[in-house]
DNA sequence: ACAGCCATGTAATCGGTTACATGATTGG
DNA sequence: CCAATCATGTAACCGATTACATGGCTGT
């Protein structure tokens, strides 16, 4: 019985940030997001928007300006209040503390691999990370820092995070692999 | 219908890493983990261990050596194979790409706050981050780098990640707040 | 004509968690 | 003796996702 979920607040935030919009538009925002965390499928978005409407945080009305049958949603005062509450410290520890990192958790179990497989692990993930970083840097160019300052900032934050992981993996690779060399020499 | 979930592999990995153990022991590992991502409650752990047993990746047997009624689980050959497959590149994009960061996503919506509230946001989260970092650094001392190299490495990775986030938040704070000052002066 | 996008929604499922429930052992 | 910890498990729930289903509009 959690108060609010992150995906609820993200959807609410999108409507607040981009102004009144359709569920379809929200869906596209998720689809084009560089972060793959949330699904952009209709079955994921529509029920949550319905929930937000039942909480009276989003107000929906049928929009018949065009020919198409579509529904516009705008944020309510209560919705804005909920969003600001979610943004206001103190944030829950789960929001500030260690985030979940699938790479980190794999590293924890890496001694289940042979030295050769470890080498492969580091080589390939470093390359994949480099690709992700390149992509993120290209994405950053899509944001206009002047008009969309916080989108730019969040994107930059993602890049910094990827950079840190890449740096760590490079360091770890050289440490782990030289240690393996040493033990090979001893044997 | 996902092949395997991360929590399954983490439990499998713990049994592989620490040797045959009880569900209770696995539970305590989660409980004492610095990463709060997975729940350590019985209702979370026991069903997953049962699932792993039904997949024949874990083999359980009643252990009556002591007085207590407990069940020991060990990893099977197939289990070890599954674990190594999970660790072997190419990893899924979701494992290598941008991880979900509750702080980053909040930053994306930060223009919903007033300048004062933004200041508060940065000040308090920076302090919370510093606390988390201190805690993580203390935790690192519990790992013996020699005997438990990859546990140490993973912990270090978590620290590096926290450091990167803290650095970013400090930078962002000064940038955002000086910009606010400028617009105040202009008005 | 028809592919592809706009646009909306539902049903079934799935994985995980909370809350509940039980009892034995151990240390102070 | 009593609190804390060891130790196991189940039932109900919950939120999110996949897969399914429908139909109109648009550009080629």
Describe the protein in words:
The structure is a homodimer of 187-residue chains. With 187 residues, the first copy, chain A, is mostly helical. The first copy, chain A, has two domains: 6-91, Winged helix-like DNA-binding domain superfamily/Winged helix DNA-binding domain (Arc Repressor Mutant, subunit A, Orthogonal Bundle), CATH 1.10.10.10; 102-186. Helix content of chain A is 65%, strand content 6%. Chain A is built from eight helices and two strands; from the N terminus they run H-H-H-E-E-H-H-H-H-H. Chain A has helices spanning 6-18, 23-32, 42-54, 77-87, 93-96, 102-108, 115-140, 149-186; strands spanning 58-63, 70-75. In chain A, helix 1 packs across helix 3 (42-54) and helix 2 crosses helix 3. The longest helix of chain A is centred in the last third of the chain and has 38 residues, at 149-186. The mean pLDDT of chain A is 93. The interface between A and B is large, with 69 and 69 residues. The structure holds a DNA duplex (28 and 28 nucleotides).
Features:
mainly alpha, DNA-binding, homodimer, 187 residues, Arc Repressor Mutant, subunit A, 8 helices, two-stranded antiparallel sheet, 65% helix
């Amino acid at each position: 019985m959690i108060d609010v979920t992150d995906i609820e607040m993200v959807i609410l935030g999108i409507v607040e940030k981009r102004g009144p919009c359709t569920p379809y538009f929200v869906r596209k925002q998720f689809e084009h997001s560089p972060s793959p965390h949330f699904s952009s499928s209709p079955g994921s978005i529509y029920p949550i928007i319905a929930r937000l409407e039942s909480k009276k945080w989003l107000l929906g009305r049928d929009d018949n300006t065009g020919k198409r049958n579509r529904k516009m949603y705008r944020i309510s005062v209560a919705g804005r209040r909920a969003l600001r509450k979610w943004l206001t410290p103190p944030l829950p520890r789960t929001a500030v503390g260690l985030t979940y990192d699938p790479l980190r958790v794999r590293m924890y179990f890496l001694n289940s691999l042979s030295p050769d497989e470890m080498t492969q692990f580091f080589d390939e993930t470093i390359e994949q990370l480099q690709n992700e970083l390149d992509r993120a840097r290209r994405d950053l160019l899509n944001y206009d820092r002047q008009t969309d300052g916080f989108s730019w900032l969040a994107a930059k934050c993602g890049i910094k995070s990827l950079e840190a992981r890449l740096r760590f993996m490079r360091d770890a690779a050289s440490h782990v692999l030289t240690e393996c060399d040493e033990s090979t020499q001893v044997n």
